[in-house]
Amino acid sequence: MSDMLLGICLQKGLDATYASSGAELMMPCPLCDDHKQRLYVNRETLKWTCFNCQAAGYGERFLTDVLLIDPIMAHRIKGQLLGDIAVIHSVKYQMKVEASAASMEWPPFTMSFDEEKVDGRYWSYLIGRHLTPDQIKHWGIRWCPMGKYAERVIVPVTMDGVLRGWVARLIRPAGEHEQKVLTPTGMKSSLLLFGLDHIKGKACVLVEGVFDAIAFPDGVAIASLGAKLSPVQRHLIRKRGIERVIIMYDNDDAGWKGTTRAARELVAAGFEVEVAVLPEGIDPGSAAIVQLEAAIRDALPLNGVKSMQHIRKQFRKE
């Protein structure tokens, strides 16, 4: 991507740096004399938001209202910025999408729950996670009695109807040198969204893990497969036609860090964003449906409060 916008901001005396995704710049807001980097501007759309004073705008208004550039010059600069960025971004994104499109084969020894003889421990594990037989069949969950994925239930990650990977979870406590969750070599989680194929409307709940997404009714939630939303995942959400995202990551330090980053970058990209939080110690995958419904009902819109810090104080006692 072009560094032209960064250079202009630095020339104007603003302490600008790239946000974690690289698609946005963050800097102190000159409109409210903020000393922290809480003004975000999307380098692809020039949509900007200050998470301190709530000032926001789109396109040339960032150049004219924030950087105080002459309107005629601002129009020329915008044309050059968006033209350069569009070409470079298109090439890079297409390369990533092609990489994510590779299909995978199921690992050896995996078995369907439709088999006549299914080890009862696997049923017990999934039923203990509040899954029904219909859900197990609907999501294509399998089990593995031997090999690399022995004693694990395997949840397939599909996109566009193609198997792109899986999440293999132990049905018992992990040993000293065991990992609780395994994914296949070559699976790029940052290029995938679990459950995206099932979304029908213009809104979704964004969660961390596959069991978190399965806890919701079908077509409601997608999982970013971790507490970080990548630029490609954000693009996939937009491509699906989704306009409103309710973030419900885990109520822990990693979850809040991921929520803060994802929320700000989604807002900068033009999404309507709300934050929903469950009580500490409860994640969506272990919550009762009434707790999920209450969290959605009490979700706070990011645009309606001064900053993410206010939302965090609302839900956490620290």
Structure description:
- This protein is of the alpha+beta class and 318 residues long.
- 34% of the residues lie in helices and 18% in strands.
- Strands 1-2-3-4-5 form a five-stranded antiparallel beta sheet, with helices on one face.
- A hairpin with a 5-residue loop joins strand 4 (48-50) and strand 5 (56-57).
- It starts with a helix and ends with a helix.
- The mean pLDDT is 85.
List keywords for this structure.
10 helices, 15 strands, alpha+beta, 34% helix, elongated, 318 residues, five-stranded antiparallel sheet
Number of helices: 10
In the sheet with the most strands, the strands line up as: 1-2-3-4-5
Largest sheet: 5 strands, antiparallel
Helical coverage, percent range? 25-40%
Q: Average pLDDT value?
A: 85
Question: What's the helix and strand layout?
Answer:
Layout: H1 4-11, E1 17-18, E2 24-27, E3 39-42, E4 48-50, E5 56-57, H2 60-66, H3 71-100, E6 111-112, H4 120-128, H5 133-138, E7 142-144, E8 152-159, E9 162-170, E10 181-182, E11 203-207, H6 210-214, E12 221-223, H7 231-239, E13 244-247, H8 253-268, E14 272-275, H9 289-297, E15 300-301, H10 308-315
Parallel strand pairs: 11-12, 11-13, 13-14
Antiparallel strand pairs: 1-2, 2-3, 3-4, 4-5, 6-7, 7-8, 8-9, 9-10, 14-15
